[in-house]
Amino acid sequence: MLEGVNALFYTSDLSSNECIIEGQEAKHITKVLRKQEGDTIHLTDGKGSIAEAKICQVGKQQLVLEPKVVKRVPRIDPQVILAFSVLKQPSRMEWMIEKATEYGVSAFQPLLSVHCIRSHFNAKRLESVALSAMKQSLQCYCPEIYPIQSFESFVKKKSDSFGLMAYTPERKKSFKNTWPAISNTKGITAIVGPEGGFTKDEANLALKSGFTWVSLGPNRLRAESASLAIVQQINVFSKLS
After folding, report:
1. Please, what are the domains in the chain?
2. Over the Cα atoms of the chain, what is R_g?
3. Which residues neighbour 124 within 8 Å (Cβ) at sequence distance 6 or greater?
4. Are 81 and 110 in contact (CB under 8 A)?
5. Burial call 36-60: b when 16+ CB within 10 Å, e when fewer
6. What does the pLDDT look like over 84-118, one tens digit per residue?
């Protein structure tokens, strides 16, 4: 959370001398927060910059602002990419994107695995949910939502980040026992399956490609709950270490 910032608003560009906020966000600033010409608010570009901006002009549908002091906010390690299998219900997927963004996920990778029921989603809608959650949680980095990939192609092209997969048939390999191996890494890729879970072939392919299986506890979780659980445990253990 940003110290001294109580509300955060988005603009795509903080490099110019003038920026414009329109629509519902402009109404919120003037009608709810009661901001007027001469007042200041905080803006972010969603790419790590934050600025204190002066309101220069208040119109019916828009605000004209002048960014003053622009600062860079460093990213917090480990940076987490959450690779999730596309869910059947769009509302559950949106909930997962919202909550994982609030926890500070760096990017989302939608996957098509064997048990996926749905093969498409509204990317623009998910991007909007992520942007809103970034502002709500007072962060300066909006997670990117990558183009959808097949599970197989994704795990075979594993990056240099440490790979975790929420899959343990016996539920014995706890997160606590796994963490010492990854406590100093700067990047983590976490894979979570769909409603029907991963197949044994998918799990073995991920293991062969360098991912580590990890248990999220003794209970069976919904797919969106599992996504949040693995992100939460990464956050908790990274703070402890």
Report:
1. 9-72 (2.40.240.20), 79-240 (3.40.1280.10)
2. 20
3. none
4. no
5. eeeeebbbbbbeebbbbbebeebee
6. 999 989 999 999 999 999 999 999 999 999 989 88
